[in-house]
Amino acid sequence: MKKSILALVLLLAVTSSGFADNSRTNKDFNFDWKFHLGDVNEAQNSQFDDADWRLLNLPHDWSIEQSYTTENTAGSTGFLPTGIGWYRKTFEVASAWKNTITHIEFDGVYRNSEVWINGHYLGKRPYGYSAFTYELSQYLNYGGENTIAVKVDHSNYADSRWYSGSGIYRSVRLVNTSKVYVPQFGAWVETPQVTTQNAKVVLAVVVKNAERKSQKLNIKVLIKDKQNNTIAKADEKLSSTSCDTANLSLSLKNPKLWSIEQTNMYKAEIQVLSGKNIVDTYTVDFGVRSIRFDANKGFFLNDKSVKLKGVCLHHDAGAVGAVFIRDVWKRRLLKLKEIGVNAIRLAHNPGDPGLLTLCDEMGFVVINEALDEWKRNKSKWITSRFADDMRPDLETGYGDDFDEWAERDVKDMVRYSRNHPSIIMWSMGNEIEWTYPYYFKMEKSNQGLGNKVLVEETGDGHDELKETAEQIEKWIKEVDQSRFVTTGGVLPRAGNITGYFDVPDVIGYNYRAQNYDEDHKNYPNRLMYGSENWGTYQEWKDAVDRDFVAGIFIWTGIAYLGESGPFPWKGLEISLLDFSAFYTPRGHFYRTLWNDKPYTYLATKHAKKAQWKYENGKFIDNRVQNWLDKWLFEDVEQTWNYNEGDSVFVEVYSNSPQVELFVNKKSYGLKSPSDFSDHIVKYLVSYQVGEIKAVGVNADIKEAEYAIRTAKYISKIVLKADRTNMNANGYDAIHIEAFTQTKSGDLVPDKEMQLSFTIEGEGVNIGVDNGWDRNVQNHKSNLIVTHNGRAMLLVQSTRKAGEIKISAKAGKLESNEIVIITE
């Protein structure tokens, strides 16, 4: 049989470098896998015939490829099918690898993955967010064919409260080293003392020795700057027998600090030498920075006070599901940055390594979160979170795996991500109190009776929740003591009684701003922040007015699949950006709160449909309040299309001291955001065909404006690309935004139109969407119906250089053509 391209590449790498010097090969293992949806007998065996299986590249999420349905799906997980899937990959290994060590590394497989090499069982990993590795060396056919097989069992479709995805949805690598090597996550860097004049850098390097004989080694570290200049070095002798750790320290003079504004990074090149030969080289990217919390003054980065302007993010990305695509997430983070976001809470599971790298590069501080469930599973629902249709027989979750796997999963979360300077806290979990009913009784009990309730409910006052938290915190600090441990707490009164709220270094308050002052008074040394917050002005004001509250994290930054229903409500858009990362009204509003650059935006609503009424010179909220309204934002639209004479409510968001509204150049007067309790300026006007415009005014100077014009008839389709070239690497992706416009170029937001995209050349359609939370069209299509006058197509490069031509049409209307160059 002909040798595969992979085998030839590996053979060349081995032949050119040899194993006596610098012997590490780290190969991208994402391309050319075979996939089958459904369980298959004997698929783990090398002789199994997979000729009719689908050929694809990783990362891959099979659920997002399917159609939304209510059959064997759940509203809690986004109405997308799950099931069992198999992956296989056949590759050749050079004979020169025979006396070496080979591992396969997975960044994440959802869920219950089992892995075989050449029919030999390697192991199982239930948790879908853990990075893990297996050694292949003893089972490989050197100089011949090898087959890796992965079974993914995501049969339980109600195992989460949001969309998780299904499959090998994160990257895979094949790593080859000598028998003396640094293992996966085996080196980490800390900067315990930092000033602008000098930084102490401490490194720990684990070295494994599979030679079965003692080795006298020298561990050498070279610190390199962005230009690859060596600016500091250190070395340490090590006598290695099986697995040993070298500890090194050095100083950096005048270090360039990592911060939100300046994301300076360094590289530690770690060389393992036996005699004069470099037997392994391992690199670590890191940043130099200091972090601390103060019980009265909040969070400090490099001794500078920073108020956390944070958002919570789930790991799915709209039309591409759980698959991490760097360009997709870079666009999303750029938009959050534009709004003013400086902090991200990865809710409620560990984030992709690539996402953490982006946060390092772009300047976000991060909370990486371990688990949403501990020993007890949370309720899930099939139809809707509003319906009483919980199915205990289908409800599974991490509680089923906690006792056996939690220590390993928690520690691996810390190990794989501890070199990222963006991470400032490790979160143990989220709202775990929901799974302990006696916490609700304590929260509602009369003052002083909480402990009595605890004893009555548990029999002996034994609080499993607090003890579990103490155990998780211990696991984290066994691996990393340079960062803070936190958790998202939701019942502070009960947590104060049991002591649960005293376990983490920093306690997060989920939707409990009303407890800030009392708890700060009663627990003056407590470090606190808002770990989940409604996206309202009041939530931000509650933090701004209190230096001791480090900041807030809005639920959520970007719309996410799941936690929804009834069908076709597929997910929650209570966010700054919708599913396609288009701005929502809330996003425009928070841009005026979190960004100092002058910005003004307006939106409208027919008076008969608006949430507001105007009485006696005041704007009054006309909604029938329920618990969900606390998450919802103003139901407004970006339109100036009404009937002549209609009464229309207008909302203006601005960070200018005053705003002035004009309808066809007629002024409706100056108003100030500070005059409104929600910081949103409101007007009631009579509709006229033409233009409505809001102007931000500062000391009689116009500093920002926004206008909408009457636009009722679609005359053209306009495509816009976020870049004009890509690398022909099979990874790069481009966003094509489509807009329905009038002849003069104004958006027509009120008319839906089905677009048909055409892609020619070296590009692949990886998803379409329109950002709407009720859009249940299949994402893997060239057809999409616009929403609010817009839609989006995502195109990924192939591995062949060339040209991509992209266009769209609807009936007789044809768009402009976008040409993308890949090289």
From TrEMBL:
Residues 1-20 form the signal peptide. The keyword Transcription regulation does not apply. It comes from the Bacteria. GO terms for biological process: carbohydrate metabolic process. Keywords: Glycosidase, Hydrolase, Signal. It holds the Pfam family Glyco_hydro_2_C. Residues 191-289 form the Glycoside hydrolase family 2 immunoglobulin-like beta-sandwich domain. Transmembrane segments: none annotated. Residues 80-176 form the Glycosyl hydrolases family 2 sugar binding domain. Residues 296-490 form the Glycoside hydrolase family 2 catalytic domain. Residues 646-699 form the DUF4982 domain. InterPro entries: Beta-gal/glucu_dom_sf, DUF4982, Galactose-bd-like_sf, GH, GH2_Domain-Containing, Glyco_hydro2_dom5, Glyco_hydro_2, Glyco_hydro_2_cat. GO terms for molecular function: hydrolase activity, hydrolyzing O-glycosyl compounds. Residues 717-818 form the Glycoside hydrolase family domain. Coiled coil: none annotated. Belongs to the glycosyl hydrolase 2 family. This is Glycoside hydrolase family 2.
